[in-house]
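Please go through the sequence and fold tokens given here and tell me how the chain folds. Record follows.
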Amino acid sequence: MKIAIIGSRVLLGLGFVVFGLNILFPFLPQPPPPSDGSMVANFMAAFGPSHWMSLVGVFQLVAGALVLFGGTAPLGLALLAPVLVNILAFHVLLMGGEGIAPGLVFTILEVFLLYAYRNHFSGLFTTKAKPNP
């Protein structure tokens, strides 16, 4: 189990470090942005010039590094969860499922690691939460 956890942490962490860096400093080949007035084209037209994707890239880079370091993996997993929801939503709702495979793989790794670190998240799943005095 320990090897599976470390392997999953490395794959998930490195994946988000690399793709986060690619958003900030493009070095991987990118397909040309769609220009046909589709929902994807409109989405990219809004998020590109607004630097929204730069913010997403920073979150991916930082969260991926936190997952890689091990001791900070729960914080990295918490930061990556909404990023993964958005990745899946983009591919399902805007792309009709096209290109969803990497997002599904990263989501499976995330869910596995959330289970492996479940004791660090137990406080989130309570019905008796009270603020500190």
